[in-house]
């Protein structure tokens, strides 16, 4: 049997986003958080086939659009990437909105505004459009917070590190320069991947955060290594690690949200602050601390993230049962 998927390929500030516009599995009309569980249980081969090699690669991100279950949302989205079917993806949202508007997949109730149902909750988006093209997107992310500060962990080959655990749609280990890590200068992408893998493994034994409102969102699967910026107009620089070997080419939407929540939790940002966040390749997201928020017993923020994406092509992908690599592979 051959399955066909029509995809719109884009990138958000350098990070790939593959929007599945046709061929995605039919799912029951239910909250997208429940549809996510069904997708993971019964259809995860779609994610692996489209994100993993030979049709994808180590940093592939994607999304599938569905009708919204919530009446206050324009559409729902599942985020698929090499690290799994995520609760939320900021770069994925910016790329999905850009592709969906430019290609006519969605029609907003109000021009320039969208409400998106994600597994992590409702995400509001504003965008600027000129001549049929989406020039910029600002997502108003879900409530983000500092879950635990100053966690000490022994990392193989690095020694003891002090990290903060912060949530911005996914849980992140946030690392700043310290005695056993001097910063991003001089590190290759391979260095960052290797350190991140060791850190995540070490944290798994001592730290398992669970979201106060949804126990299905748990565990530290991402890391964000933070340093001073290269560009004088930026406030910080980062390398976001996810999956097995992926370094985000953008500054990371949920990563920037988690970073701002961490800085807010430590008294280094306030409501109204802006935070220009620089990626390893020099692209920038503009973060804003919009308001305070409560997440269970935690004090956090409502962040917004501004960025841009570009559509780079249309792609019809075949997944044929005759192909021994139909469902993709990863080299570890």
TrEMBL record:
Enzyme Commission code: 5.1.1.8
Reaction(s) catalysed (UniProt annotation): trans-4-hydroxy-L-proline = cis-4-hydroxy-D-proline
Alphabetized UniProt keyword annotations: Isomerase
Coiled coil: none
Listed GO MF terms: 4-hydroxyproline epimerase activity
Pfam families found in the cross-reference section: Pro_racemase
InterPro entries cross-referenced by the UniProt entry: Pro_racemase_fam
Family: Belongs to the proline racemase family.
UniProt-recorded name of the protein: 4-hydroxyproline epimerase
Organism: Rhizobium sophorae
Lineage: Bacteria, Pseudomonadati, Pseudomonadota, Alphaproteobacteria, Hyphomicrobiales
